[in-house]
């Protein structure tokens, strides 16, 4: 069999595996898995009133898809299309994928990240799917650069996807900035632009992204019924950091709170320290006196104490943050970090409002057991994906084919996004870094598509063997 024939079969097998994974994921997950957050956001989408704890774009999109087809099935189809569509688009760019790509994608679609996660109605899945798809669209634009209409279509699609990603998570703007940088670099190489010309192109793209992002935030903000969740989450982060420092150093003086809010200072030293864990901030809600004191404290006072901790005790602050970040990145006890969810579980009142019942059927049980079988393996280890992503970035940015720049910058952007959790993490849920897993798989799949060395080597060995026997 000729090398071309082998590559043709490799392309068909790769396409078949991607399509089979897409279909099986939908069959296993539809109409979708929902947790507390999912139910609240579907209710917000239906009513058009957003409480603001989560970025409202997911609630809005759930409302749009629910209006077309009641429930979450259409939202799940959209997420699954984004995740599997990235693999399909890269395969199409390659022309003749290698057998190595077929084997890699087969391993990928068997993981919970591709089999179960696309069916979970979480903003993190929407964010991850749109972020990775945005960079894949940039890769497609890079390859189609000589054809302006196709190029601008892909560029427009990439910008839209990356803006949605930035809307879905507050620190998702880091992926948008990475996409803008990738666009500028691609434009410079494809059109032989000077640094000034590339900077101008990058600036125009950044301006367009900021304008669209701001307009969307303003439009969605008109439906907020409470203070935007970002401000509330920032106060929660400040309190969590102060309590973490007290847990590590009980005699730490709180120069601001001890004088101006001794009640909160006392509750932090007692119930706060007793309930603190670097895994997540949720246990702190178990103390009503602490929560009441946190609600009553003036935000500027809490913020001043937080800054005082950072500036006067930087080693203590960084040590506590490192402990929290280790739980996010390395998940030493994955069972404590909500690796995934299946079925429909949530508050009964809200379930009644959206006309749904809790769900736990045989299919959900099978998926739960399947996903649990990967616990304790490298599949549920963000640290390994971070290493793979870093290595892939090195290969891609060294090779620097047009599409390589987009996929290489995707790796770096996902790593920078991951690093941002050093400063903002308040829980170790596995979903927060789901984008890192997808980015690493995407990067290595893109590399494997052109890895024909094993096939060429095998053909040479077969030829020599035939000559000896002939």
Shape descriptor: globular
Using only C-alpha atoms, the radius of gyration works out to: 24 Å
Mean pLDDT figure: 92
**Helix and strand element order:** HHHHHHHHHHHHHHHHHHHHHH
Helix content: over 70%
Q: What is the count of helical runs?
A: 22
Structure overview:
This protein is mainly alpha-helical. Helices cover 73% and strands 0% of the residues. The chain has helices at residues 3-29, 36-47, 57-68, 73-94, 99-109, 112-115, 123-143, 148-168, 173-191, 195-221, 229-248, 257-260, 262-275, 288-296, 299-312, 314-330, 348-353, 362-372, 382-399, 402-424, 434-449, 453-469. α7 (123-143) packs antiparallel against α8, α8 (148-168) packs across α10 and α11 (229-248) packs across α15 (299-312). The radius of gyration is 24 Å and the shape is globular.
Briefly, what is this?
The chain is mainly alpha-helical. The protein contains 22 helices and no strands.
Topology readout:
Elements: H1 3-29, H2 36-47, H3 57-68, H4 73-94, H5 99-109, H6 112-115, H7 123-143, H8 148-168, H9 173-191, H10 195-221, H11 229-248, H12 257-260, H13 262-275, H14 288-296, H15 299-312, H16 314-330, H17 348-353, H18 362-372, H19 382-399, H20 402-424, H21 434-449, H22 453-469
Helix pairs in contact: 1-4, 1-5, 2-3, 4-7, 4-21, 5-21, 7-8, 7-9, 7-20, 7-21, 8-9, 8-10, 9-10, 9-20, 11-13, 11-15, 11-16, 13-14, 15-16, 16-20, 19-20, 19-21, 20-21
